[in-house]
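2 proteins. here.
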Amino acid sequence: MRVAIAGAGAVGRSIAGELLENGHEVLLIDKAPTAISVERVPQAEWLLADACEITSLDEAALQRCNVVIAATGDDKVNLVVSLLAKTEYGVPRVVARVNNPKNEWLFNESWGVDVAVSTPRLMSALVEEAVSVGDLVRLLRFSHGDANLVELTLPPESALAGTQVGDVAWPEDTSLVTIIRGSRVLTPSPEETLEAGDELLFVAAQAREEQLEDLLSVRREVPLD
C-alpha cells in the first residue's frame, strides 16, 4: 500500500515509521526545509513541497496513493490537503489530524475526510476508557457514514453478562468488533459468552450510541435476602 503523509514533523515521522515497519510505501511531504530529515526515516521517500499546491501533489503522484494522511500542525492545511486528495486525485482513504477540537466539526466528508483523529479528544477518551465501567466512551470518529468507534466495559450487574453474543438483539447500525478480556483479544463469534469486565469495542452510528449504552448497562434484578 502506498501512503502519502503531509507534514514531516514528529507526528508524521512517527506514523511513517510504523507504516514502513508494516511493509508499506511511504512518501513524506513538507514545505519546510528544516523538516526534511531523511536520516530519521531513511526508508521513506521525501518531497520538499507545499502539499496545498496542485503542482506539488502532481509531483507526488497522489493519484497512485491508497491513503493520504494530513498530519500537519495546522488544521487549515490539513483540510485543504484532504479536500484536494479526495476531489482532485480520488484517493480512496483520507485521514486527517485535528489539532484544535473546536475545528473538529469541519473534518467530514464535505472536506474529503474519511477519518478524523483529534489528539486531545483521543487522550481524553483513553482516560475515560481507563476509569469508566458501564459508560460508553467514544474513541474515534469516522467522518464518512457518521459512525464512531466506541468502547464500553461491561459492568457486573449488566443483564447481558453471561449471554452469548448471538443471542443479543443489537441495535441497528452497530457492529461488535472486538472483545478484550484481560490480555486476550477475542473475535466476537455468536457462541462467545459475554463476561462482566469485558471491554467491548463497537463501530456504531452516532444516533445509536445511547440505545447501545442502555442495552449494555441495563441492570439485572438483584434478589432480596
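next one coming up
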Amino acid sequence: MGVRLMVVDDHRLLAEALASALKLRGHRVLAAAAPAAGAADLVIGRAPEVCLLGTAAPAEPGTFDPVVKIKRERPAVAVVVLGPVPSPRGIAAAFAAGASGYVRHDERIEGVERAIMKARAGEAAVAPQLLQGAFGELLNPAAQPDDEGARLLQMLTPREVEVLVRVADGEDTRLIAAGMGIAPSTARTHVQRVLMKLGVGSRLEAAALAARTGLLDRAAPVD
C-alpha cells in the first residue's frame, strides 16, 4: 500500500522530480512545494503520513524549526529530512526537532523509499553509513585550531585595539595621540598596557604578533 506523503524542498525541480518518481512507485504524493518558510503550515494543513523536508544547511540555527512546528501541531506526521552529507550536529539537530529520519540528497530512490516506509512504521530512518560517520566524528573529533587572534582580541579594550592598529601602521606616540585626540602621556600608557597584555617587550613585537595571529584582520579599521 502506498504512502500518503508530501515533498517540500527549496529546489522546486528536485521536489517535483522526487515526487514524480515516488508516484511511479505507487505512493500518493499530496504536493511538491518549494518555499521552506511555509513548509510547516502546508504540511499541517494537508496532514500526510510522511513529509520529506529538504534542507541545504542542516547545521544552521533554525533550519529545523518547521519540523518542531509540524510535530507540535501534527505529531502523527513522520518527517524525514532530505539534505547534504550531515555533520553529527546536523543529524542530532534533526532528531532533536522531532524528525524520524535523514536521507542524503544523492540517495537512490530505493533508499528514499525505504526511509519513507521506516518512518511511517515509527522507526528511525537513517542510513547505517551516516550513523557510522557521525559516531566516528563524535568519538574522534577533528582538532580545532587554537584561534590565538580571537583570544588576544578579547583581552584588549576597543581603545587598546585602536592603539595596536596604529602601532602596526608605524605611528609613534605623538601620531597616536593626535589621531585619537588624547594626550601623549595617555597614548604612551595605552601602548604599555597593550604590550603587557600581549606579553611582548616592544612595539615591533606587538605588531608582528598581531599580524601573525590575524588579530589585525579582525580589528575594526581606524578612521
